[in-house]
Amino acid sequence: MSEREVEIAVDGIAVFAHHGVHDAERETGQRFFLDLRLVPLRDAACDTDEVADAVDYGAVALRAHAVASGGPYRLLERLADEIAVTLLREFAIDEVSVRVSKPSAPVPLVLDTVGVTVTHRRRP
């Protein structure tokens, strides 16, 4: 018999919010993108094919969006951590990784995004 781990990915959730270190970032606001990786507490959905046995990734995405729309937070690290802690507390997941990216980082270079990933796991 093999071991199985399920990972749910939700990528590219767009959020307009007022986070950032600089006053102008918080006043004007900007787009952020959220990428989520979730490991459910149970893998029963693989066997049962029942929605009731799965993590509702739509509800997870909406909750992550709601947290990211709040704040304001100065640092991406703090925002990613707040989302991760909230999702772990409110959903039947064993592990969550949250990546928060911002395409308009105040860096004097041409770049796609700057991002931070925070991972939380339940303690046994």
Helix and strand element order: EHEHHHEE
User: What is the distance, rounded to the nearest whole angstrom, between the alpha carbons of the first and last residues?
Assistant: 23 Å
Task: Determine the fraction of residues in helical runs and give it as a percent range.
Answer: 25-40%
Q: Helix/strand-derived class?
A: alpha+beta
The best one-word shape is: elongated
Mean pLDDT: 94
State the fourth-level CATH superfamily: GTP cyclohydrolase I, C-terminal domain/NADPH-dependent 7-cyano-7-deazaguanine reductase, N-terminal domain
Radius of gyration: 16 Å
Tell me how many strands there are: 4
Would you give an account of this structure?
- The protein has 124 residues and is an alpha+beta fold.
- The chain has a single domain (8-121), classed as GTP Cyclohydrolase I, domain 2 (2-Layer Sandwich).
- It contains 4 helices and 4 strands.
- The protein has helices spanning 23-28, 45-48, 57-69, 76-90, and strands at 8-17, 30-40, 93-102, 114-121.
- A 4-stranded antiparallel beta sheet has the order 1-2-3-4.
Key traits:
alpha+beta; four-stranded antiparallel beta sheet; 4 helices
Provide a compact summary of the structure.
This protein is α+β, with helices and mostly antiparallel strands. It has helices at residues 23-28, 45-48, 57-69, 76-90; strands at residues 8-17, 30-40, 93-102, 114-121. The protein has four helices and four strands.
SSE topology sketch:
Layout: E1 8-17, H1 23-28, E2 30-40, H2 45-48, H3 57-69, H4 76-90, E3 93-102, E4 114-121
Antiparallel strand pairs: 1-2, 2-3, 3-4
